[in-house]
């Protein structure tokens, strides 16, 4: 019999410990508040159960008053019936569905609990739920089954919800919730089988430990500088709501000229400025109504669960900066702010798109504060889509190589070709090279793209068709990022060895802007590649400021004159003089010239007059797949 006290006291002790832990973790977030209410509910119901237990009074030899016992047991059932409902509410909250569920559905969810409450309220007259006999002994009635049926409904709904939304809830929380469910169910079954084993409250109390173990401390979630939630919490919250297929809004804003501000104020001044912004967000009531985050230096975000308020929140932020309420005006600063009002998932389907929009410098004119929304994001969304397509192409090794012929004007034949990357995506279709190359360079994927192109060129050359068609070598572009890779020579050598290709069959191209900004590492990589046996062409010549000395120093085998020089010479006498001077200067170094952008007969004649050796452009052919390119070369040779 003494074990009865042990179960109750142990349950109460565990619940008091849980209350202390939850209080220390903080109760600002709604899910923390729900857990705290569950713990308090369990603690009070445990105490009520203790005072209403017949065995306790028998053990201590005290007189039991039936009315008092009836009241205690009624309180116990009122509170205990509420637990499964609270459990479902918690599952809804952590899955991100709370704002998605309509008010009528929320009301309907409480129906099982309300029905039992009606019967329980009438119990003093009907005794349908339970009764206390003259000796103070508790007897269950048929109506008590409604409490268990309601609990079964709630637990089943919570279980289905956890399984369906386990991705948004997270593995750690699912395990904690399952532990609570299993322990609670075990306690109910044991006590139903043997009412003398009052372990139900103790099992539920221990189960609470599993739940609170998944709850982060408020301090762990906050940015030390501003007191707002940090970027990881923003990511977790947005991903959770996206996975729950919830429509919501995100408002992000950033200080555009943050570097200028920091250089003026210094690190301490910049910290004070961001603290002022966070303080204003509190005073303006944002933190009470929305989740607020400090993403990084000069960038903030708000998660708006009611999507219809997204634009109005953005306007309030704009007004706050314009009026000086944020505390960033009056310090001699010219503060420029971009505000993004994003409707999710309509305008951003995932966290990456939200951050891509926030990180993108928009093309619009910023006047102190500018709000971007809707169609303003199309450019950013396209860039994100291209990035994903590029990742797929790299992963699947589906980057195709097209060849544009280079015509030898002296010998009257196709003598080489430039290898050009092409991407045809299942979702986006053909992606222009200017689009995906820019993304590849900014996202660090250009090395993978360049390597796939080089490897495919080696495989194509190994087949022998190009040599048979009169192609002396293929020009392959090398990006500035590739040139910073210390073992690039080893990567290229490996690919050539695998296909039995000689360095003389490939001519590497670097752009004039790349050569101008060369570093020691860049030059070291170029020298290694030259030692392997590669020759180099200077691409886009005429768009930069390269001088004759740099051309001589780098020992280029070919200079590729940019198409803009040729096109400008169409109708401008001075431009024609510039083109002629460039040709004469390069020829003075005994370096042959390829001119890009040859599209008309007039272009061909103008280049022939100044003595350009090689022509490349649509006048001869657009870039072609390898097999079409071979057929084209053979048809030109036969004509």
Structure commentary:
- There is one protein chain.
- With 639 residues, the protein is α/β, with parallel strands linked by helices.
- Helix content is 58%, strand content 15%.
- It contains 29 helices and 17 strands.
- The strands form 3 sheets. Strands 8-9-11-12-13-14-15-16 form an 8-stranded mixed beta barrel, surrounded by 4 helices. Strands 4-5-3-6-7 form a 5-stranded mixed β-sheet, sandwiched between helices.
- β6, α16 (351-359) and β7 (369-373) form a beta-alpha-beta unit.
- α6 (111-126) runs antiparallel to α7.
- The mean pLDDT is 84.
Give me a quick take on this structure.
Helices cover 58% and strands 15% of the residues. It is of the alpha/beta class.
What profile does the largest beta sheet have? Answer: 8 strands, mixed, barrel
Rg calc: 37 Å
Model regions low in confidence, pLDDT < 50 over at least 5 residues: none
What is the CA–CA distance across the termini?
A: 109 Å
What's the pLDDT, averaged over the residues? 84
Number of strands: 17
Q: Which range does the strand content fall in?
A: 5-15%
Number of helices: 29
Structural class: alpha/beta
Strands side by side in the biggest sheet: 8-9-11-12-13-14-15-16
Portion in helices: 55-70%
Overall geometry: elongated
């Amino acid at each position: 019999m003494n074990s009865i006290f042990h179960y109750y006291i142990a349950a109460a002790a565990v619940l008091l410990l849980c209350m202390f832990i939850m209080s220390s973790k903080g109760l600002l977030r709604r899910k923390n508040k729900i857990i705290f209410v569950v713990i308090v509910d369990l603690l009070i119901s445990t105490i009520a159960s203790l005072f209403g237990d017949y065995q306790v009074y028998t053990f201590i030899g005290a007189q039991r008053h039936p009315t008092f016992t009836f009241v205690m047991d009624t309180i116990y059932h009122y509170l205990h019936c509420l637990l499964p409902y609270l459990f479902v509410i918690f599952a809804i909250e952590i899955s991100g569905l709370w704002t998605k569920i309509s008010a009528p559905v929320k009301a309907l969810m409480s129906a099982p609990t309300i029905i039992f409450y009606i019967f329980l309220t009438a119990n003093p007259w009907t005794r349908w739920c339970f009764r206390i006999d003259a000796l103070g002994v508790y007897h269950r009635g048929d109506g008590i089954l409604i409490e268990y049926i309601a609990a079964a409904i709630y637990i089943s709904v919570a279980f289905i919800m956890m399984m369906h939304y386990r991705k948004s809830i997270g593995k750690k929380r699912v395990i904690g919730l399952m532990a609570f469910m299993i322990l609670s169910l075990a306690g109910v079954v044991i006590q139903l089988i043997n009412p003398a084993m009052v372990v139900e409250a103790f099992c539920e109390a221990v189960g609470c430990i599993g739940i609170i173990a998944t709850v982060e401390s408020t301090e762990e979630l906050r940015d030390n500088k501003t007191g707002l939630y940090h970027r990881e919490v923003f990511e977790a919250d947005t991903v959770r709501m996206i996975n729950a297929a919830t429509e919501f809004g995100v408002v992000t804003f950033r200080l555009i000229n943050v570097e200028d501000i920091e250089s003026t104020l210094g690190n301490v001044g910049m910290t004070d400025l961001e603290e002022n912004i966070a303080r204003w967000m509190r005073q303006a009531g944002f933190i009470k109504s929305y989740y607020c985050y400090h993403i990084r230096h000069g960038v903030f975000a708000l998660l708006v669960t009611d999507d219809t308020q997204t634009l109005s929140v953005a306007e309030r932020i704009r007004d706050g900066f314009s009026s000086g309420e944020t505390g960033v005006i009056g310090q001699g600063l010219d503060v420029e702010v971009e505000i993004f009002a994003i409707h999710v998932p309509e305008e951003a389907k995932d966290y990456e798109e939200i951050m891509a929009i926030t990180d993108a410098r928009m093309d619009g004119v910023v006047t102190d504060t500018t709000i971007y929304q809707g169609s303003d994001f199309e450019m950013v969304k396209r860039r994100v889509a291209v990035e994903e397509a590029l990742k797929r192409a790299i992963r699947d090794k589906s980057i195709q190589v097209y060849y544009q012929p280079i015509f030898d004007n002296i010998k009257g034949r196709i003598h080489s070709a430039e290898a050009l990357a092409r991407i045809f995506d299942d979702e986006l279709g053909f992606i222009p090279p200017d689009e995906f190359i820019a993304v590849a360079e900014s996202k660090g994927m250009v090395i993978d793209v360049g390597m796939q192109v080089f490897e495919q060129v080696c495989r194509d050359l190994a087949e022998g068709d190009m040599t048979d068609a009169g192609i002396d070598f293929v020009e392959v572009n090398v990006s500035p990022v590739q040139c910073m890779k210390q073992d690039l020579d080893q990567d290229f050598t490996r690919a050539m060895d695998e296909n039995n290709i000689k360095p003389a069959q490939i001519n590497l191209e670097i752009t004039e802007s790349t050569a101008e900004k060369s570093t020691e590492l860049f030059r070291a990589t170029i020298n290694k590649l030259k030692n392997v046996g590669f020759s180099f062409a200077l691409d886009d010549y005429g768009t930069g400021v390269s001088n004759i000395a740099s051309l001589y120093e780098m020992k280029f085998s070919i200079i590729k004159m940019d198409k803009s020089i040729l096109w400008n010479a169409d109708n401008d006498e001075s431009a024609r003089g510039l083109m002629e001077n460039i040709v004469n200067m390069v020829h003075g170094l005994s370096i042959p010239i390829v001119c890009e952008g040859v599209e008309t007969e007039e272009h061909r004649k103008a280049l022939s007059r100044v003595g350009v050796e090689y022509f490349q452009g649509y006048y001869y052919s657009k870039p072609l797949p390898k097999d079409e390119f071979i057929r084209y070369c053979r048809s030109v040779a036969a004509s």
